[in-house]
Amino acid sequence: MAFRQMHAQLMGHGIARYPCAQVLERAREDIVTVSQILGSKPFILGDRPSSMDALLYAMLVLVFEDHELQEDLSSTKYVYPNLAAYVERMRKR
Fold first, then answer.
1. Most-buried pick from 32, 38, 48, 69 (CB within 10 A)?
2. What's the rounded Cα separation, in Å, for the pair 15 and 12?
3. pTM to 2 decimals?
4. What is the DSSP string of 13-69?
5. Phi/psi of residue 78, each to 5°?
6. What is the pLDDT of residues 41-64, one digit of tens each?
């Protein structure tokens, strides 16, 4: 029942209408963008964590720990040390 409900929501938002490969490629592009925005800042909006950091952390934890993108992030092709440090910093917070 939970799967059906989640699938219906994803269809409603439109993301489930794309092939899996295209969804993963868009996610990779988003990760690159987030990495660029974060840069060397400790938190997404500056020196102090915000609600945006809580949201970003929750999403990145899924990517780094339980997702197909994990292989890309740990490969030499896609290396984002600033995101890995950010996740660790947020985990400690």
1. 38
2. 8
3. 0.71
4. HTGGGS-HHHHHHHHHHHHHHHHHHHTT-SBTTBSS--HHHHHHHHHHHHHHHSSTH
5. -125, 95
6. 999 998 999 999 999 999 888 877
CB atoms < 10 A from the CB of 28, how many? 16
Q: Return the domain boundaries, the chain.
A: 19-92
Span 1-49, pLDDT tens digits: 887 887 787 777 776 777 877 877 888 888 889 999 999 999 999 899 9
Own/partner contacts of 50-58, CB < 8 Å, gap of 24 or more, are: 53/90, 56/86, 57/86, 57/87, 57/90, 57/91
3-state secondary structure of 76: coil
CATH 1.20.1050.10 fits 19-92, yes or no: yes
Q: How close are the terminal C-alpha atoms of the chain, in Å?
A: 35
Strand-pair partners of 43: 46
